[in-house]
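Example record for the data management plan.
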Amino acid sequence: MTSVMHIDLISSVSPSKTSTHPFPFQLILHSASMAVADLKSPYYTTTEFSNSNLSSSSARLSYNRCLSFRHLARSPAPLIRCSVTSDQIQAPVGIDANDPKQKPECYGVFCLTYDLKAEEETKSWKKMINVAVSGAAGMISNHLLFKLASGEVFGPDQPIALKLLGSERSFGALEGVAMELEDSLYPLLREVSIGIDPYEVFEDADWALLIGAKPRGPGMERADLLDINGQIFAEQGKALNAVASPNVKVMVVGNPCNTNALICLKNAPNIPAKNFHALTRLDENRAKCQLALKAGVFYDKVSNVTIWGNHSTTQVPDFLNAKIHGIPVPEVIKDRKWLEEDFTQMVQTRGGALIKKWGRSSAASTAVSVVDAIRSLVTPTPEGDWFSTGVYTNGNPYGIAEGIVFSMPCRSNGDGDYEFVKDVIFDDYLRKKIKKSEDELLAEKKCVAHLTGEGIAVCDLPEDTMLPGEV
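Corresponding structural encoding:
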């Protein structure tokens, strides 16, 4: 069994050839003293590349060459750690876990020091950001992590460190995820750490994407699900409050995501409440798709779509304020009955319909919607448009009860912050639907009062509504 370790190539390169001689490049290592390793071993070969091979189009090759080493048996305790090399091989010095200057929480190749200044391409890069992901061994994360590492989310000049949270049960899978990230050679991915303790994994996080949650099983009441997952998000909120960046942005994906986000923010009083989001972007994307299909246009012609309320079957896809080609939807799709009944129901139950066809929940499209949600916060909102996200209702201009997390229309300047959209219209139909979702969230809030520091829980949900991904 081998583990892959990468090295940074710092010296100039010679004409293309294959060699079994000692490696001619300087190795930058994570050790107290920088050293040049003399690898005279039959266990490796080296490949040298010409300058033309190290163009920006193949930037990954310029500093991500691989060496394979024998892997020591890992400790039975699933702790955050780096991979190490066999003492039978002459290799770079490993990490000293007792040295506070080192990074004992790193994984594999990401334990090696890199020198951004030594690489011409990186001189224009931004300061590295830390992105923590819970449920990192799950299906949604399996799609999302590689989008994060590629630069698709935060941009082609934004290096990132991924901090991955799993459980004892999933730790082997978490190692597998880290191995795949190693093998993908993403230039922007500078650090990866894995672990099962949120107080370690969330340290200095600039973004926290909270995906891990227990799914609702057969016969489980919604109140039970709220309590079980609420305990998870209460603990994660406390961890974020203790060790994350003071301005960390938190995206809650695990369901029931609105109330989980509320629990999380209530347990993180040192973090601004408006920094917490519940993911409703997938619902918005689904609504855009259905409107585009009905109007016979491509979905990029659909704008100003809002999902109001809870991420449940009480959610309200707003066709009243939505536009197609800049024209209000009711003027383009004049079938009001279809809009109020068929369209609304299709969006509310799309997740369940997909499970019946696909046999599993919508992991890939959920990951895409997480990307969309983050990009809406880190890039300026197009003039006249907006996006949906579940946020804390305090200070909202719509008359929605304060103290809950409710999906509403927002705009952003691209700085990670947002503001409420004020130029929206309501009719009796829309108000009535919004009120139903509001009542549900107020009831959920009472149901988790013991987790938010607001007294004894009283669980009297108006009805046992389903989540969009349940059947």
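Summary line stored alongside the record: DSSP finds eleven helices and 18 strands in the chain.
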